[in-house]
Design a protein that fits this description.
The complex is a heterodimer of chains A (514) and B (330).
Chain A: E1 11-20, E2 23-33, E3 38-42, H1 49-56, E4 64-69, E5 72-74, H2 79-84, E6 87-90, H3 102-106, E7 113-114, E8 117-118, H4 120-133, H5 150-163, E9 168-172, H6 180-195, E10 199-203, H7 207-213, E11 216-221, E12 224-230, H8 236-243, E13 265-274, E14 278-286, E15 290-294, H9 301-308, E16 315-321, E17 324-326, H10 331-334, E18 341-344, H11 348-352, H12 359-364, H13 368-371, E19 372-373, E20 376-377, H14 379-393, H15 409-421, E21 427-431, H16 439-454, E22 458-462, H17 466-472, E23 475-480, E24 483-489, H18 495-502
Parallel strand pairs in A: 3-10, 3-11, 6-9, 9-10, 15-22, 15-23, 18-21, 21-22
Antiparallel strand pairs in A: 1-2, 1-4, 4-5, 7-8, 11-12, 13-14, 13-16, 16-17, 19-20, 23-24
Helix pairs in contact in A: 4-5
Chain B: H1 6-13, H2 24-43, H3 50-75, H4 83-98, H5 101-106, H6 108-129, H7 134-153, H8 164-171, H9 180-198, H10 200-210, H11 212-217, H12 222-248, H13 260-269, H14 281-300, H15 305-325
The chains are: A alpha/beta (514), B mainly alpha (330).
Chain lengths: 514, 330
């Protein structure tokens, strides 16, 4: 035990490490959760925040290091064990069952029973108490969850976590679905819970919320803790400074110093919106230009790419290709000339490939309409196109007739890209294409992106890796809460600027605007 | 759905050399066929006579045509439960058309098949565009078809008999000694192999069966493919019914009832994944022959009808269990 805080820590982590494959998610992490305090965790994408929570909540087990509860070592083999030890979690994605009542949901994990049957009266009482504790007495325990608005559901979620009588409560982006009025209410509740002696762990990327709520802050970077300090003792720009410093391991091809600005935009969107998840997004991409999408995960980047590809229904605003408005009804329309779009989707295993099918079948799948004549596949032409692609991308495979699932992650990703390049697209949308692939393949993909841009393609490139945005992109749009909050260009694309705009705060000395 | 063997898909990628890399399930099915023949020949030497074998193939061809349609639907990860009454509808409509003199007789076969395709279209629209689970849609259209046929016939056996063309298709012999039904089955099979291995439609069927999301994001018109697959299945079911009417000289109530479970079992015993995306047509052929032989042997052994049904059902369940438990070969 290291710290000499007045109240002894409820929960401690010491030297906790976790790896996923070759990726280091947490490295000798330390954490001390003290009762009666609100502890905020800060860090950029991939800093290790979510792994930390998952270990604490018993969802995954650490590779090394110790967890201590009341100073005694514990090991959680399942979320249920963590819950029994008094650790409750409120996740960003709601875990409520819409068709059940509020009371049923609150008591879902462990309903009060009598003679083996659910004791409805006791369950209702339990729910009422939990709702009252969460400051949501106005929610009727018998109401169906699906009839409640999103912000009320979030309150039920908190009540559900409180129903188990936890000693520590983890809130992971728990306010991201709430309106400002509800946030104030939740904050009042959280402060009361703190005063009642609960230990709260609060994960958020909203700096002003943290400033208002937290007692202690811990910053994570690259899976390590950088610093812990009392809230309010550091300025926003100091905090941003702490989050900077990712390890650079990639080499990027030189950017094109051409007069591409003179070229007319190939893809343009004006005031693009989709429900309240995408709002007033306007930008354009010129021929030969690589435009990056940055920001923290889940700020609308993925939806933006899907909207451009015609997958989302009910988008507002307009998309223009070569200056004329187009209505894209779906991927089938988007891939055809004159649009000639391609989307490299987020999850290559379920969205990009059919894993049990062969490399050959996957490679030609998106281009069959061009390879087939009258619906019949021209085998010579198919063979030819596939050979070209395998050579162009240097896809390493035991043969064309092995299932694509047997390839390495990097080579699978190459197949996804190759299957689209076979159509010679003019507009290429990439959704985090380098996630989970090896460094060597990453380098090849960077080179390829640059070559494609030089050949005249317009590229929109979403990456969760700031390093890539800095190294690959001519311009970067930073999204926050479904909006483009900043546009960075050329040398202004720096890690400091990216992180500051991702958190939607001013970066201090080097703040940049487009 | 994610794990598979290398050989399964290469069967269709390289048909000429298919024997070398054929699916283990297909080999098992063919092995079971040989075993059944061997057991049968121990019981009676007639089992290996060409006459008996040709007769079995002829009986198998009705199931074979129906199972071909069923296979496309199962490859998509769906199922077609409307087989019994779509078959009956096809048979009854074809015979009804044959009742309208020469002009009617000449269009009898197309009328039967088209009526099945109409039900297939209904199924396809329900599954692909209205997003109703295929089990529900096809079960409902089966009942609708049944109701329509009861209304049409008044609940009695229809009086119309099959046209000469229909009878010739089922029982004639264009090639001496080989019943036409077998020739028809071979033709349907050739078309199926071509469709599944050589066309963009076939690739799309496998693609959707493996990952509908990936197929959709690749720009394939997934809804259209699913709809067409159900139309093909409906058409082939009805065609099977027409052939059966030719064999029996007339249509009868509930004549298709005995074909639903065998058609699904034949496809799955042939190594096609019930979850979709995997399987070769050769396997379905093997499954059809296997099931026909099993039925035949049980009846030759003069087991009473009830016992036959029980043994037949148990054998299918056990085989499906064995196939389902096979470890993913990777």
């Amino acid at each position: 035990m290291t710290a000499a805080e007045t109240p002894p820590p409820l929960f401690q982590m010491e030297g906790v490490s976790k790896r996923y494959g070759g990726v280091r998610a947490l490295e000798k992490a330390r954490l001390e959760v003290v009762p009666g305090r609100i502890h905020a965790i800060l860090g950029e994408n991939g800093a290790g925040k979510s792994t930390l929570i998952k270990i604490m909540a018993g969802v995954v087990a650490q590779d090394e290091g110790r967890l201590l509860l009341d100073g005694r070592e514990v090991a959680f083999r399942s979320p249920a064990e963590a819950a029994a030890a008094g650790i409750a979690c409120v996740f960003q994605e709601l875990s409520l069952i819409p068709d059940l009542s509020v009371a049923d949901n609150i008591a879902l994990a462990n309903p009060p029973r009598r003679f083996g049957m659910i004791d409805r009266r006791a369950q209702r009482k339990l729910a009422e108490e939990a709702l009252a504790r969460a400051g949501a007495e106005d929610i009727h325990p018998r109401a169906a969850v699906k009839d409640l608005p999103l912000s009320r559901r979030q309150m039920v979620e908190i009540a559900k976590a409180l129903a188990s009588g936890p000693r520590a409560l983890i809130l992971d982006e728990a306010t991201s679905a709430l309106t400002a009025g509800d946030v104030a209410k939740v904050f009042a509740v959280l402060k009361r819970l703190r005063d009642e002696g609960l230990a709260l762990l609060y994960i958020s990327h909203r700096m002003h919320e943290i400033a208002e709520l937290a007692d202690t802050c811990t910053v994570f970077r690259n899976g390590r803790n950088v610093a812990s300090f009392a809230a309010g003792s550091r300025s926003n720009s100091e905090i941003v400074e702490m989050m900077i410093g990712r390890e650079y391991s990639n080499v990027f091809p030189p950017r094109q110093a051409s007069a591409r600005l003179a070229s007319a935009p190939v893809l343009e969107c004006r005031d693009l919106g989709w429900s309240d998840r995408l709002r007033e997004i306007s930008f354009s991409v010129g021929e030969g230009e690589v435009v990056g999408l940055g920001g923290l995960e889940g700020q609308g980047q993925r939806l933006l790419l899907l909207a451009l590809f015609g997958v989302l229904r009910g988008t507002t605003g307009s998309v223009l290709v070569d200056g004329s408005p187009v209505a894209i009804s779906g991927p089938a329309a988007a891939r055809k000339p004159p649009l000639s779009m391609a989307l490299i989707p987020e999850d290559r295993k379920t969205e990009g490939l059919m894993l049990p099918m062969t490399v050959r079948e996957n490679l030609s799948f998106a281009a069959l309409d061009r390879i087939a004549r009258g619906g019949v596949i021209d085998r010579t032409k198919e063979e030819q196109s596939i050979d070209d692609m395998v050579r162009l991308l240097e896809i390493k495979t035991a043969g064309l007739d092995v299932p694509v699932g047997t390839l390495s992650g990097g080579n699978q990703q190459k197949v996804v890209i190759a299957k689209w390049l076979m159509r010679q697209p003019r507009i290429i949308l990439l959704n985090d294409p380098t996630r989970g692939i090896d460094v060597g393949t990453k380098q090849e993909l960077y080179q390829l992106l640059r070559r494609l841009a030089e050949a005249g393609a317009a590229i929109v490139f979403y990456s969760t890796d700031y390093d890539e945005l800095i190294g690959c992109c001519d311009r970067v749009l930073v999204l926050y809460d479904g909006r483009v909050v900043r546009e960075l260009e050329g040398d202004a694309i720096s890690e400091r600027a990216l992180i500051a705009s991702a958190l939607n705060v001013e970066a201090g000395q080097k703040g940049t605007a487009a | 759905m994610s794990e598979t063997s290398e050989s399964r898909l290469s069967v269709k990628a390289r048909l000429p050399g298919f024997l070398r890399r054929v699916d283990p399930a297909v080999l098992t099915a063919f092995g079971c066929i040989l075993l059944l023949l061997l057991l049968g020949s121990l019981y009676s030497s007639n089992f290996l006579s060409p006459d008996y074998l040709l007769q079995q193939l002829k009986v198998a061809s009705f199931l074979g045509v129906v199972a071909a349609g069923m296979m496309i639907v199962i490859l998509l990860g769906h199922i077609d439960l409307s087989v019994p009454w779509v078959m009956t509808t096809g048979a009854m409509m074809a015979c009804a058309a044959a009742g309208f003199g020469n002009a009617g007789a000449s269009v009898a076969i197309p009328v039967g098949v088209l009526s099945g395709m109409a039900f297939g279209l209904l199924n396809g629209i329900g599954v692909a565009y209205l997003r109703i689970p295929s089990m529900i849609v096809t079960l409902a259209s089966n009942v609708v078809a049944q109701g329509l046929m009861v209304v049409y016939t008044g609940g009695f056996s229809p009086q119309d008999s099959a046209s000469n063309a229909i009878r010739w298709l089922a029982t004639g012999a264009l090639v001496p000694g080989v019943p036409n039904a077998i020739v028809v089955w071979i033709a349907v099979s050739a078309a199926m192999v071509f469709l599944l291995t050589r066309t963009a439609f076939g690739r799309a069927v496998y693609g959707i069966g493996n990952s509908e999301r990936a197929a959709f994001l690749s720009g394939v018109g997934t809804r259209r493919v699913v709809m067409i697959a159900f139309v093909v299945s409906g058409g082939l079911s009805a065609f099977g019914g027409v052939l059966l009417a030719g064999y029996a000289s007339k249509a009868a109530q509930a004549m298709g009832d005995a074909y639903l479970l065998p058609s699904i079992a034949a496809v799955v015993l042939g190594g096609t994944s019930i979850l979709g995306g995997r399987g070769s047509y050769v396997g379905t052929v093997a499954g059809v022959i296997l099931i026909t032989l099993l039925q035949s042997i049980l009846s030759v052994m003069q087991m009473p009808e009830a016992g036959r049904q029980i043994v037949y059902g148990i054998v299918i369940i056990v085989m499906l269990l064995l196939y389902g438990r096979a470890p993913p070969s990777r």
